[in-house]
Design goal:
This protein has helices at residues 21-37, 55-60, 78-92, 103-116, 222-234, 243-247, 278-281, 313-330, and strands at residues 8-11, 14-15, 18-19, 41-47, 64-69, 96-100, 120-124, 126-129, 135-141, 144-148, 156-160, 177-180, 211-215, 238-241, 268-272, 289-294, 307-310, 348-351. The protein contains 8 helices and 18 strands. Helix content is 25%, strand content 23%. It is elongated, with a radius of gyration of 23 Å. The protein has a 7-stranded parallel β-sheet, sandwiched between helices. A 6-stranded mixed β-sheet has the order 14-13-15-16-17-18. By secondary structure, the chain is of the alpha/beta class. The structure holds flavin-adenine dinucleotide. Flavin-adenine dinucleotide binds at residues 216-218, 220, 242-244, 256-261, 273-275, 277, 279-280, 293-296, 299, 312-314.
Length: 361
């Protein structure tokens, strides 16, 4: 009898019965991997009142959906969700399991991986198969991209953030099989989600902002951070940051851009006091025009941006804010950046246009 290769799984995520975009993006990548492996794409979807939500999953590339549809699953419950996924995985033996790098996925993936006794690579920015059809899970490290493989244990597990893979065009003609899951009533309940209270983010949301200002360690202190926040405000931009800004307590984790933060795709990105480490720039690969302000002319960030400004951001940013305000008040013509200069700032504007292509990111 011919052996059917084990399937590629995606653990889909929904909020208020709406499946998240990242789940469709993962299904699309799972489809590519499954086609290369000669196997199927299977999706696990847990929640309540999800009838009617399976068709888009097939349209995105799934062949089968395991559907856990019960009031007990309405909210993400770590122990219950883990138990259901682990039991099913032990029975079905998937080859690969992909989970989104959302708040839920970041918790669920390690719980499932630990129970299955397998490896997990967090925050991958690419997933490909090597010549042995083993999953290369690519993450930024050591100033470049490294591939992590899990050659012995199965499934091979990875988390991936929203925006790493494109959202697929839906093929409404595709159908598949829905397999209803029995939801046991005696599942562990030491932790229970009773209610979800949504916090509305302040200002412009990072993921959809046309302009993003990102602040890095070079901000120096809270005062420097506030200056950069003011720059974002006058530009009506979303304010993002690098890891050190979070570590210093200037910003919340939800504003971090990069491999383990958010992916942004603004028309204009301005990075202030940051070095352009790949873990950060992985999150800005889709930005159209990129500008960096850094006091070190040799900073690697200048290799990646379209325009580089070599200056101390503590001196330069206040001048820039004044110039932008002046421009806005007087509706002056011409580019703001090219008219900067003044007693406090000897900004040198370097036209670079040397940005590496996205494949090198
Ligand atoms: C697994 C893993 C995941 C990670 N995920 C992320 C992620 O998602 N996002 C992220 O951002 N990081 C992430 N990091 C951290 C990342 O590797 C870098 O450490 C971080 O991005 C560096 O931040 P930075 O550029 O602000 O700081 P630095 O690298 O310290 O750079 C500061 C820059 O500011 C400049 N500077 C200093 N003073 C001034 C001044 N007065 N004016 C102007 N410029 C000045 C300096 O020249 C320097 O270039 C991750 C790391 C790991 C290991």
């Amino acid at each position: 009898m011919e052996n059917t290769p084990s399937p590629v799984w995606v653990i889909a995520e929904q909020i208020d019965c709406r499946i998240l975009a990242v789940s469709f993006q993962l299904i699309s990548q799972a489809r590519k991997l499954a086609d290369e492996l000669g196997t199927s794409v299977e999706v696990v979807l847990l929640g309540d009142q999800l009838d009617g939500q399976t068709q888009p999953l097939f349209a995105a590339g799934a062949d089968r959906v395991y559907l856990g549809n019960a009031p007990d699953l309405a909210f993400y419950q770590p122990e219950v969700y883990t138990e259901i996924i682990v039991s099913l995985a032990q029975e079905q033996q998937p080859e690969i399991v992909l989970i989104s790098s959302t708040a839920v996925g970041r918790e669920l993936a390690p719980l499932v991986a630990a129970r299955l006794g397998t490896g997990l690579t967090a925050h991958c920015i690419d997933l490909v198969l090597d010549e042995n059809k083993t999953l290369e899970q690519r993450v930024p490290a050591y100033g470049g991209l490294i591939s992590i493989v899990c050659p012995e244990k199965r499934p091979q597990m990875a988390t991936v953030a929203k925006g790493v893979f494109p959202t697929p065009a839906l093929d409404d003609g595709r159908t598949g099989e829905v397999v209803p899951l029995e939801v046991p009533t005696d599942l562990p309940r030491r932790i229970q989600t009773l209610e979800i209270v949504r916090e509305e983010p302040e200002g412009v949301p990072l993921e959809s902002a046309p302009i993003v200002v990102a602040a890095g360690a070079g901000a120096g202190d809270l005062e420097g951070w506030r200056q950069i926040a003011e720059l974002a405000k006058v530009l009506n931009a979303a304010l993002g940051c690098t890891r050190p800004a979070v570590d210093e307590g200037w910003a919340g984790l939800e504003t971090m851009i990069g491999q383990s933060g958010k992916m942004v795709s603004p028309e204009l990105y301005i990075g202030v006091g940051l070095s352009g480490e790949l873990q950060h720039t992985a999150g800005i690969a889709e930005a159209q025009i990129m500008v960096a302000i850094n006091n070190d002319p040799k900073s690697p960030v200048f290799e990646q941006v379209d325009y580089g400004i070599v200056d101390d951001c503590r001196q330069f940013v206040p001048v820039l804010i004044d110039k932008i305000k002046e421009y806005q008040e007087n509706k002056l013509g011409g580019g703001v950046f090219l008219h900067i200069g003044g007693p406090a700032s000897l900004a040198s504007v370097v036209h670079q246009r040397k940005r590496k292509n996205d494949n090198e990111l």
